[in-house]
Amino acid sequence: MMFRDRQIGQESPLFLIAGPCVLESLELSLRVAERLSQIAFRHDILIIFKGSFDKANRTSLTSYRGPGLDDGLEILRLVAEKTGLPVLTDVHDPAQVKSVAEVVDILQTPALLARQSDLIDAVARSGRVVNLKKGQFMAPGDMAHVLDKARSAAVAAGQDPNSFLLCERGASFGYNNLVTDLRSLSVMGDTGAPVVFDASHSVQAPGSLGNRSGGERRYVPLLCRGAVAAGVAGLFIETHPDPTKALSDGPNSWPLDLLDPLVEQLVGLDRFVKGSLAAYPSAH
To answer: What global pTM score does this model have?
Structure first.
């Protein structure tokens, strides 16, 4: 897949999706995006700014959901305009797709809606690249069916059937806990779609803090290294200047001031692994 004049795939240079879980303000969004732009330039890596205009699946009714569709899209438009970064956001309803696709570069389907056929159909017809997140209740092989839905809808609409990413974000392991099986990256990669590993939501502990979710951000680097060593196409890391004050997913967000050294390490590992692919063909 070509995106912004760069090749995306399991054998191509690593790319990164990063940003706050939810859009909090224009000021914070620009602060994060400007830092991401600097990191992208320094390491010659594609970075896509991520921020949600609405978190429709919060644990509690009182939790902050975001600025809403109109204000959120304006923030994303300004981030793209002022930093030059491509932008990504998630959509929860087919009715949102048209207006969101007019602003962002990549649409994302939430993990909890991975099997919602009408939503998959709508995003696939949008003409945008789509990041299809695997449900935490699904086996990795099940994402082949989601991808088939998306590709069929894209073809029917005259769109590119190869404009889809598959995203691993952990699997439910009992209550309030997720685990990541790195084999899933290979299983989903067998579909031919580029695979993204979401480190932030893989360390989330859903609902573990009563009326909100907890998480263990200390494991983000560990899981990222494992995914990169497995030859993943891209990473998804939520980041915030002060995760303890983030309005959503703070416990599993990586501190913004620690992102650059982490990216440096991961880019180096990615270059080593992908430079060795020819010498280490997959064993079947």
So the answer is: 0.94
